[in-house]
Amino acid sequence: LKFSKMDEVAREELLKLDAEKKEKSMELQRLNSELQSRGFKLGDSYVDDNDYPRSDIDIPVVLNIVRRIRCLQTELTELNDKISEGLNDIHRKFMTRCNSETNVFAIVDEVLPNSTGEVMGLKKYDKLLRIGELKVEDFESCDKIIELLRNAHNLKIVIERDDQLLDLYFTGTAAEVDNDLGLTLQLVKCSPETTPMESP
């Protein structure tokens, strides 16, 4: 059994970018302070009123600091763009998934210990959205779930738990599938031919 890592990986990548942004922002602040301590600010002139190089500053050192500041400003702009793009991508994928998989056809009432349901990774109050290719419109009975589990390898199960969509993967063998799954399901949405029922 394993959870889908797509959202988690994207989140970790954004956290790394944010940490890098904070680090560069701190360096930028430090360099600006150092520049000011040397009697220079961004935008100041390197020459005096007579157009001679200023004698009150160490021009080579100041130039190096200014170059680094400019580089950091560019890098921070790029990081902000990447973070914004990453957040938008996660939001877009989430909304697309929500729009396509929000039909809940059953809620888990009970999961027996050491049962197929437990192996599937299901917990009480989980909402079932999809099991393999099985969705609300073609769900007829729990026998269909048992058949899918016994015949499919690495079967994807889409659930909603604590207001989050999760992917579970059943990697067991046919021999590990109980006849009743060890589950009690409360059907909340059915196809026209189906009446509400519970699994055995």
Description:
It is a single chain. The chain is rod-shaped, with a radius of gyration of 29 Å. It has helices spanning 6-37, 59-101, 116-119, 142-151, and strands spanning 106-111, 127-131, 155-161, 164-170, 183-187. The chain contains four helices and five strands; from the N terminus they run ααβαβαβββ. 44% of the residues lie in helices and 15% in strands. Helix 1 runs antiparallel to helix 2. With 200 residues, it is an alpha+beta fold. It has two domains: 5-99; 106-187, Pdz3 Domain (Roll). The chain has a five-stranded antiparallel beta sheet.
Describe how the helices and strands are arranged:
Layout: H1 6-37, H2 59-101, E1 106-111, H3 116-119, E2 127-131, H4 142-151, E3 155-161, E4 164-170, E5 183-187
Antiparallel strand pairs: 1-2, 1-5, 2-3, 3-4
Helix pairs in contact: 1-2
**Got a strand count?**
5
Structural class, from helix and strand content?
A: alpha+beta
Backbone CA Rg: 29 Å
The helix content, as a percent range, equals: 40-55%
In short:
Pfam families: Nas2_N. This protein is an alpha+beta fold.
Features:
200 residues; rod-shaped; Pdz3 Domain; 44% helix; 15% strand; single chain; five-stranded antiparallel beta sheet
